[in-house]
Amino acid sequence: EHKCDEQATAAPGTGQPACVAVDSDGSACFLKASCDGAVGGCSHQMCGYRNANAPGPTPPSPPTPPIPPAPAGMTLREAAAKRGIYIGAATNVAGVSMQSEPQYKPVEQAHFSLTTAENACKFGPIHPERDRFSWADCDAIFAAAEGANQAVRGHNLCWHTENPQWLLHGNFNASELRQILRQHIHAVVTRYGTRALAWDVVNEAVDQNGLKPSAPWYPKVKDYIDVAFTAAREAGGPSVKLFYNDYSAEGMNHKSGQVYKLVSGMRSRGVPIDGVGLQFHWSLDSHDPLSEVAANMKRMADLDLEVHITELDIKCVPQGSSEKCTPARLNAQAELYAQIVSTCLAAPNCKSVETWGFTDKHTWIGSSTEPLPFDANYKPKPAVDAMINVLLQKLNTSSA
Predict the structure, then answer these.
(1) Which residues, at least 6 apart from 310, have a Cβ–Cβ distance to it below 8 Å?
(2) Which side of the chain, N or C, has fewer Cβ within a 10 Å radius?
(3) Does 36 score more than 70 pLDDT?
(4) pLDDT digits over 77-108, tens only?
(5) Membrane-spanning residues where (predicted)?
């Protein structure tokens, strides 16, 4: 659920603000006349909110030249290792054991030094009943990664979605919820210990107005974020890095300001937090200026916080569009991927770049948008060469 922009223009005849949910490519996907209550019809990760009369998407950039080929045989993880950062991808447990797609595992493990379980380690899948955990799928992600000498990012310990029915409908009071949250986090983090490089402890807790309703946790448990991070540190010790993770907070905007307010407050209260995950669900035709991304990373560095790019994908064409992802657009997509990596490399506190999936065949936003570095046949797209080149300092990227 998202709150509308209260500064939006009043809808005709209603006397109430009108809001439009805007896909990350700038297209309106749901219109609501008033700003009271839940908004349906749009994915929480794909839509932000703006004044219904606000300007449309950023015009496409001029065509970019072809991307130079990377050195033969060079992989993304080899190039990233030379720069001391992780390059990662979210994976699903079906892919790890998928017999019908033998390319999935070899391509993912050859190119990526870090993996995140897309769903297998979330509260719902891992804790289906109050007194029972289901570890098999999350265990499989860790085992497959360790077999390929990959680090694992744990995702996630506390979120307002992907929760089990017993938790959502248990009618628990604040004290009970606090205990459930602590017990869950202790169980999960203790099981995997230092096998996890980091955990996304709390996921997507704010909007542009501050903390947002996040059933079952907020507003019933007002300090749930502090409770979650404290429990994670108790269970994992100082070597497991603890992150807050969110979307639409990459540049300098109202939402990123609320993320900054949240984490700076945690620092001042002594709540254990090591970094912020910036998701980067972007579109080729509409995205934050990279100069703003750099400024946002800098203010996190000033709080002594790491930044990880955690869920990167770039839609080559808008979702539902008849437009084709032409060679020119593929090159532009590749250039933007490279510029994002370059922005991370320029920030001393940016330690990881991770895509949300890696092949267009398996992406949460639909294969037709072609958002990932490998195509639906597991072949590298120009984005792979572009990222390798910038990691090897052979591509002169410019700010967008």
Answers:
(1) 116, 153, 155, 200, 243, 245, 277, 278, 279, 280, 352, 354, 356
(2) N
(3) no
(4) 999 999 999 999 999 876 656 667 889 999 99
(5) none
DSSP 53: T
One of 311, 335, 354, 370 is an active-site residue; which one? Answer: 311
Contact 280, 312 (CB under 8 A): yes
Alpha-helical segments (H) within 97-223 = 104-111, 123-126, 136-147, 165-168, 174-192
Q: Buried (b) or exposed (e) across 229-268, using 16+ Cβ within 10 A? A: bbbbbebbeeebbbbbbbbbbbbbbbbbbbbbebbeebee
Strand, helix or coil for residue 90: strand
For the segment 205-217, what is each residue's pLDDT rounded down to a tens digit? 999 999 999 999 9
- Written as one string, the DSSP assignment of 114-131 is EEEESSTTSHHHH-SBTT
311 is catalytic: yes
Q: Sign of dihedral through CA atoms 230, 222, 261, 351? A: positive
Per-residue pLDDT reduced to its tens digit, 19-29: 434 444 333 33
Nearest-angstrom CA–CA distance, 182 and 203: 16
Task: Check 108, 118, 204, 306 and give the catalytic one.
Answer: 204
- Residue 160 is given by DSSP the state S
Q: Is 204 labeled as catalytic in the residue annotation?
A: yes
* Spatial contact of 354 and 310, defined as CB atoms under 8 Å apart: yes
Q: Where are the beta strands (DSSP E) in the chain?
A: 19-23, 28-32, 47-51, 86-91, 114-117, 151-158, 196-203, 206-207, 210-211, 241-246, 275-278, 281-283, 306-315, 350-355
Distance CA 154, CA 120 (A): 10
DSSP class of residue 399?
-
Dihedral, 113, 119, 125, 130 alpha carbons, nearest 10: 80
For residues 361 and 239, what is the distance between their CA atoms, to the nearest angstrom?
A: 35
